[in-house]
Design brief:
Helix 7 links the parallel strand 14 and strand 15. The chain has two domains: about 200 residues, Alpha-Beta Complex (Quinone Oxidoreductase, Chain A, domain 1); about 130 residues, NAD(P)-binding Rossmann-like Domain (Rossmann fold). The termini are close together. The mean pLDDT is about 95. It is α/β, with parallel strands linked by helices and about 350 residues long. Strands 3, 5, 6, 9, 10, 17 and 18 form a seven-stranded mixed β-sheet that branches. Strands 13-12-11-14-15-16 form a six-stranded parallel β-sheet, sandwiched between helices. The chain has a three-stranded antiparallel β-sheet with strand order 2-1-4, with no helix packed on it. It is built from nine helices and 18 strands. Helix 3 packs across helix 8. Helices cover about 25% and strands about 25% of the residues. The longest helix is centred in the middle third of the chain and has 19 residues. The structure holds (1R)-1-phenylethane-1,2-diol and zinc ion (2 copies). The site of (1R)-1-phenylethane-1,2-diol has 7 residues, from helix 3. The site of (1R)-1-phenylethane-1,2-diol (FEH) has 7 residues, from helix 3.
Length: about 350
């Protein structure tokens, strides 16, 4: 079968022919219908030798949807023909976190030499993918795979980040989304669908602000020197109740703490590597709370899929054949993907 393989650290992945795996025990073979690209894939590709515990080669792709095609003899919980999306942050499978579908916070993650689907284990940028257990599968019904796949990472990560700050987003509140790309445009929709908050968006790109407004943001502002002042004016001088920062740079973190209300929540999702000085006494808003959420849980993925199937969530995608993976990665690196890039093996 064809697969996008990472064969060397710092080397671009290549399309190669590899054997199609046969499911054993509790394993499930899924015919891939769509696999999304993520900035984390680029971070993995660019990682220095030894920076990650992963063993090469492996197939990339941790944002995958398709159809169950073969089952190991001990499989329970799915059937051949079922259309599914894969919950990608596979953990040890034995700790209390994994047992609850919270593999993203597996207690034994530090002992593993992989982080899940397409992250040190063979992923779904391929015609088929082997999933260790049906517990990692969420049914998608008639949802198109090119919609479902990005929801398993971009959608789930946004949803999980929001879950941690939701308590601050009741009636009369304001939420700020910084960075309206593959994750941010979904966060805008999830906020509108699940909170009463007014939703503001900030980005450096005019087309990203247009995307935010198209998907329900009440207002969008360019990232400039006076953005904090504009946001304070736009919130009647009190600031915002929660910030979801999908960039995570020095500038966006500084903007976030400048516009947060006392008791405000900051969820840093983007891996921009920005730093924030947290000290007392200091200059952060009183009652300031910070979260660094990672991906999301399997139960949350089922909630995201249900939102999408209800029509409340739509993923902006750019679709490529599997063979165009190098072009898709090039566009992702250049910041020239509108929404989420998705590979279609079929
Ligand atoms: C995956 C692996 C490591 C870090 C971050 C990620 C995210 O893309 C998962 O959403
Ligand atoms: Zn990802
Ligand atoms: Zn575990």
């Amino acid at each position: 079968m064809k697969a996008v393989r990472l064969t060397g650290w710092g080397r671009e992945p290549t399309l190669a022919d590899v054997g199609c795996p046969l499911p054993r025990g509790t394993e499930v073979l899924v015919r891939v219908e769509a696999a999304g690209l993520c900035h984390s894939d680029v971070h993995v590709i660019d990682a220095a030798r030894g920076a990650l515990p992963y063993r090469l080669p492996f197939t990339l792709g941790h944002e995958v949807a398709g159809r169950v095609t073969a089952l190991g003899p001990d499989v329970e919980g799915t059937v051949a023909g079922e259309r599914v999306v894969v919950h990608g942050p596979w953990g040890c499978g034995n700790c209390a976190r994994c047992a609850a579908g919270r593999d993203n916070y597996c207690d034994r993650r530090g002992d593993l030499d992989w982080h899940g689907l397409g992250l040190g284990r063979d992923g779904g940028m391929a015609e088929y993918v082997l999933v260790p257990s049906a517990r990692h599968l969420v049914p998608i019904g008639g949802l198109p795979a090119a919609q479902a796949a990005p929801l398993s990472d971009a959608g789930l990560t946004s949803y999980h980040a929001l879950a941690g700050v939701r308590h601050a987003l009741g009636e009369g509140t304001t939420a700020l989304v910084i960075g309206v790309g593959g994750l941010g445009h979904l966060a805008v929709q999830i906020l509108r669908a699940t909170t009463p908050s007014r939703v503001l968006a900030v980005d450096i790109r005019e087309e990203a602000l247009e995307l935010a407004l198209r998907y329900g943001a009440h207002d969008g502002m360019p990232m400039r020197a006076d953005t904090a002042r504009m946001l304070r004016v736009g919130t009647g001088g009190v600031g915002v109740d929660a910030v979801l920062d999908f960039v995570g740079s020095e500038a966006t973190l500084a903007l976030a703490v400048e516009v947060l209300r006392p008791g405000g929540e900051l969820a840093v999702v983007g891996s921009g590597g920005g730093r924030l000085t947290v000290r007392k006494p200091g200059f952060l808003p009183a009652g300031f709370r910070l979260s660094l959420p990672f991906w999301g849980t399997r139960p949350e993925l089922a909630e995201v899929i249900a939102l999408a199937r209800s029509g409340a969530l739509h993923v902006e995608t750019e679709q490529f054949p599997l063979s165009a993976a190098p072009e898709a990665f090039g566009r992702l690196r250049q910041g020239r993907v509108r929404g989420r890039a998705v590979l279609l093996p079929g």
